[in-house]
Design brief:
The chain has about 400 residues and is α+β, with helices and mostly antiparallel strands. It is built from 15 helices and 11 strands. The chain is about 40% helix and about 15% strand. The strands form 3 sheets. The protein has a 5-stranded antiparallel β-sheet with strand order 2-1-7-6-5. Strands 8-9-10-11 form a 4-stranded mixed β-sheet, covered by helices on one side. Strands 3-4 form a two-stranded antiparallel ribbon. A hairpin with a 4-residue loop joins strand 1 and strand 2. Helix 3 runs parallel beside helix 5, helix 5 crosses helix 9 and helix 7 packs across helix 9. The chain is globular. The two termini are about 40 Å apart. Glutamine binds next to loops.
Length: about 400
């Protein structure tokens, strides 16, 4: 049997074509001259399998889709608190190139619009790193997310830099307000270079799934950032990734995402999947028209909306075996242990009257235990023991 996923992606490609709706970005010749009819889509699973359809070999610059990853590197290198002092996490509802700063703090509102992204760029690496060193950390970091060595498109970089008047104005404003330190031109150069890395839809899907996978790239198995950093980035992508269309995007598509003017959109659904789409015609917000359509379709067909409720907790206790002769009771648990499922387990354990019998928790079928569930289960075991029970644990994979 052949898996139906590639056939499905081909179908999507045809269904989401919008003819000649939308406009190519035209502020530099390199973006204005791409073939407007190119289309590619990729899905990367949590175990690192990538499916693609369309012009999967098409290379385009990462542009604003670099922003979440550079934010991740800044969080990794300086810590969440230090980064928050310089860039907020509030959706601005503004276009990507809006010159907006919070009135009270002078901080950019979030790291997904240019003014915030220029700031986070300066926070990558050591505080005393020079431009070359920072660029090296950026190259290494983006490449670790993609699982291969990414390279800058020098022609795009040169073109962008020659026309980066607005970004330069922002960097100067940030410098004047004391939000960035060092040379504002250096910050713009670095930011512009970060936007000019060449990628494919496969790269986008792998980069996205690394965030969806708690910071571990499932293809290379490298931990790129901590789970805490990955969560922070996904949260900000959710509220700010699609600029002034973020609310509409979250309600219809519901996948934390980021778009770029080159026509790419990447999406990361925590614990499930990484997605990348490329099609260069843009709508008024600067998002790929076919890219948006494709995400809408994938979300609907595959039920990928973040706010879909999955009921995994109902069967947390798979069975209870009670040996009348020995008085031994075995509670076999299954599935992922979260607050919700562990609470359910404890409610079952609370029904056991105080006494001297043996109670064993069998975790051999439990797939994961998060910190909250671990605390709850351990507390349950110590309460059973305080009630006079002998408490046993079968945990062959060491989940607890
Ligand atoms: N390089 C572009 C810029 O800074 C990226 C913008 C984008 O992709 N939205 O203007």
């Amino acid at each position: 049997m052949k898996t139906p996923v590639p056939d499905y992606l081909l179908e999507i490609r045809d269904a989401c074509s919008v003819g000649d709706d939308g406009e190519l970005a035209d502020y530099i010749p390199e973006l204005a001259s791409v073939d407007p009819n190119r289309f590619a889509v990729a899905i990367c699973t949590m175990d690192g399998v990538v499916y693609t359809a369309g012009d999967a070999g098409a290379r385009f610059t990462i542009q604003s889709m670099s922003k979440p990853f550079i934010y991740a590197l800044a969080l990794r290198d300086r810590g969440i608190k230090a980064v928050l002092e310089k860039v907020g996490v509030e959706p601005s509802g503004d276009a990507f190139n809006e010159i907006s700063l919070e009135p009270e703090t002078g901080r950019p509102e979030n790291p997904m619009i240019n003014i915030g992204a220029i700031t986070t760029h300066t926070l990558v690496g050591d505080p005393d790193a020079d431009e070359i060193e920072r660029d090296r950390v950026v190259a290494e970091g983006l490449s670790a997310f993609a699982g291969r060595d990414l390279e800058v498109d020098i022609t795009v970089f040169d073109s962008e830099l020659r026309t980066a008047f607005r970004n330069r104005a922002m960097a100067n404003l940030l410098r004047a307000g004391g939000i960035i330190e060092g040379d504002p031109d250096e910050a713009v150069r670095g930011y512009t270079r970060q936007c000019a890395y060449n990628v494919t839809v496969r790269d986008l899907a792998v980069m996205a799934v690394t965030l969806a996978n708690g910071g571990i790239n499932p293809v290379t198995r490298e931990r790129v950032v901590s789970a805490e950093v990955a969560r922070q980035v996904l949260a900000v992508m959710t509220t700010c990734g699609m600029y002034d269309a973020a609310g509409d995007w979250m309600s219809t598509v519901g996948i934390p995402a980021k778009s770029g003017v080159s026509g790419g959109i990447l999406g990361a659904l925590p614990g499930q999947v990484g997605l990348g789409v490329f099609s260069p015609r843009l709508d008024g917000h600067g998002h790929s028209v076919e890219g948006v359509r494709t995400f809408e379709r994938l979300s609907r067909d595959l039920e990928l909306h973040l706010m879909n409720t999955t009921f995994t907790d109902v069967e947390a206790v798979r069975s209870v075996r009670h040996d009348e002769r020995t008085g031994r009771q075995v509670y076999r648990l299954q599935g992922p242990m979260t607050f919700a499922s562990a609470e359910l387990v404890l409610r079952r354990l609370a029904e056991i009257p105080a006494g001297s019998g043996e109670v064993t928790l069998d975790l051999s079928r439990v797939s994961s235990v998060n910190t909250s569930a671990r605390r709850i289960l351990v507390e349950g075991m110590s309460r059973l023991s305080a009630d006079g029970h002998v408490v046993g644990l079968a945990d062959p994979s060491g989940r607890l």
